[in-house]
């Protein structure tokens, strides 16, 4: 992950979104990565990199610095996503469990 995929978001627009909107968007990339894992590993890897980049942008959001619990939650979500797609899956995640987690944020963002 050497280049920025989301240049306009990295320039600060990402920080204008609520946490629910941020994590809902991460969930879209996680869903793409899961959907493409067996059919097209290259597309799956690119979606994973975008998801991790968005999680990194979320962690860098100054609003979240005020809440250590929030930072831990976002960091753990990043760790679990990376573990599922590129690690030994020590948390025994499934594509369905990840989708359920991130979908809750997408639903909250629509309210």
How would you sum up this structure, described in words?
The chain is built from 5 helices and no strands. The chain has helices spanning 7-10, 19-36, 41-60, 68-86, 95-110. Helices cover 69% and strands 0% of the residues. It is an all-alpha fold. The longest helix is centred in the middle third of the chain and has 20 residues, at 41-60.
Short account of what is shown:
This protein has 111 residues and is mainly α. It has helices spanning 7-10, 19-36, 41-60, 68-86, 95-110. Helix 2 packs antiparallel against helix 3 (41-60), helix 2 packs antiparallel against helix 5 (95-110) and helix 3 (41-60) runs antiparallel to helix 4 (68-86).
Q: What is the number of beta strands?
A: 0
Continuous helix count: 5
Separation of the first and last Cα atoms: 33 Å
- The helix/strand class is mainly alpha
The gross shape turns out to be: globular
Radius of gyration: 13 Å
Largest sheet: none
Tell me the series of helices and strands, N- to C-terminal. Answer: HHHHH
Point out poorly predicted stretches.
none
Let me know the average pLDDT: 93
Residue share in β-strands: under 5%
**Can you give the helix content as a percent range?**
55-70%
Task: Give the SSE layout.
Blueprint: H1 7-10, H2 19-36, H3 41-60, H4 68-86, H5 95-110
């Amino acid at each position: 992950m050497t280049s920025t995929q989301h240049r306009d978001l990295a320039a600060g627009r990402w920080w204008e979104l609520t946490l629910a909107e941020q994590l809902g968007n991460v969930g879209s990339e996680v869903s793409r990565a899961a959907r493409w894992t067996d059919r097209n590993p290259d597309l799956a890897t690119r979606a994973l990199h975008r998801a991790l980049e968005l999680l990194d942008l979320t962690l860098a959001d100054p609003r979240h610095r005020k809440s250590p619990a929030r930072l831990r939650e976002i960091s753990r979500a990043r760790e679990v996503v990376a573990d599922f797609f590129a690690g030994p899956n020590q948390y025994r995640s499934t594509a369905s469990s990840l989708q359920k987690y991130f979908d809750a944020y997408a639903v909250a963002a629509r309210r």
